[in-house]
């Protein structure tokens, strides 16, 4: 059985101006010990999807479909069970570590907190575990006594990873875990994540704008556009031989060192992603698509097979399939 199964998941935010369909009909599975990368430009719904997995969305979000964690639907779970799932079974590492760390509490106390809250360790054992976790993420034990502002961005991100690992979860969701870091530190934190998930058999969902980063760390890739998965398959295949024109553009978008904005603008693509409240008819990508056909303005293509273990939502992917 898969560790995680998303079945037709949708998320709609209700705001004063109307409804924002941020995630639309996403179905994905993640096996135990596997790593799935979720790619897409800003606004494509990646973070909304990640937050939905642990029911961390604001109250104005309505979630549909099923999110099965070990066969148990997260969306209908009682709150008590949901609280037990967070940290202990699945935990999230956020972008830039600014959301997760309390500026006025020592690092060691913050790493120990999920262990103590979940009753998984007494204070003495928790202190030992903190030392072990700091070591695992490459920080000296004395850092337990530091405050977040005494650490560099990369060190703070390591602390977030230590917190996520504290309760030995089966799944870690990493939302842009390295975006705010400079390139050298980024590479170190990425190889740390890669190492930890491989060594400890943890499943990983990693979210990024950067397809090359995801292809390096993950076995499978899902590319999102305007709230939908438009391509899914083995990482190397999707990265090197993308079927969907949007994935191709993302794969060709090499980030400029030290310029986070360049990471968000896929090369060769004009225009911006659509406003989810005003999605174009047909394929949502057609106004920006370099190879759009006339029918793309009216035909909203579902994901269909595009090779072994692969799916893509594009008329061109279908054409290939029919020929072969
Ligand atoms: N609380 C909210 N209320 C209303 N709309 C929201 C809310 N949060 C996100 N959205 C909208 O939902 C869509 C998806 O946003 P989301 O943050 O999930 O995308 P993303 O791919 O993670 O982008 P980024 O990489 O910038 O974080 C966007 O159009 C965004 O404006």
Automatic annotation (TrEMBL):
NCBIfam families: oligo_HPY. Its main location: membrane. CDD domains: ABC_NikE_OppD_transporters. GO terms for biological process: peptide transport. Pfam families: ABC_tran (PF00005), oligo_HPY (PF08352). This is Dipeptide/oligopeptide/nickel ABC transporter ATP-binding protein. It is found in: Cell membrane. Belongs to the ABC transporter superfamily. It is a peripheral membrane protein. It comes from the Bacteria. SMART domains: AAA (SM00382).
């Amino acid at each position: 059985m898969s560790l995680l199964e998303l079945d037709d998941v949708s998320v709609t935010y209700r705001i004063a101006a109307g409804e924002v369909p941020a995630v639309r009909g996403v179905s994905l599975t993640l096996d135990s010990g596997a790593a799935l990368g979720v790619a897409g430009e800003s606004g494509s719904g990646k973070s909304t999807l990640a937050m939905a997995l642990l029911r961390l969305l604001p109250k104005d979000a309505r979630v549909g479909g099923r999110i099965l964690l070990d066969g148990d639907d997260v969306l209908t779970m009682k709150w008590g069970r949901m609280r037990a799932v967070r940290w202990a079974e699945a935990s999230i590492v956020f972008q830039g570590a600014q959301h997760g760390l309390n500026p006025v509490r020592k690092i060691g106390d913050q790493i120990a907190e999920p262990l103590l809250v979940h009753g998984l360790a007494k204070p003495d054992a928790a202190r030992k575990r903190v030392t072990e976790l700091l070591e695992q993420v490459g920080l000296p034990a004395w850092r337990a006594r530091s405050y977040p502002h005494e650490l560099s961005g990369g060190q703070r991100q390591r602390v977030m990873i230590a917190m996520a690992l504290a309760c030995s979860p089966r799944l870690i969701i990493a939302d842009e875990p390295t975006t705010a870091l400079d390139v050298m530190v980024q590479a170190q934190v990425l190889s740390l994540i890669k190492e930890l998930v491989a060594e400890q058999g943890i499943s990983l969902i990693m979210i990024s704008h950067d397809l090359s980063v995801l292809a390096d760390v993950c076995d499978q890739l899902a590319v999102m556009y305007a709230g939908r998965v438009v391509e899914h398959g083995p990482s190397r295949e999707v990265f090197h031989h993308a079927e969907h024109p949007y994935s191709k553009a993302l794969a060709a978008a090499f980030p400029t060192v030290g310029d986070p904005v360049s990471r968000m603008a896929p090369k060769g693509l004009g225009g911006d992603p659509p406003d989810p409240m005003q999605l174009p008819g047909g394929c949502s990508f057609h106004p920006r698509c370099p190879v759009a056909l006339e029918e793309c303005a009216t035909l909203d293509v579902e994901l269909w097979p595009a090779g072994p273990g692969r799916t893509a939502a594009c008329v061109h992917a279908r054409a290939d399939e029919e020929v072969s």
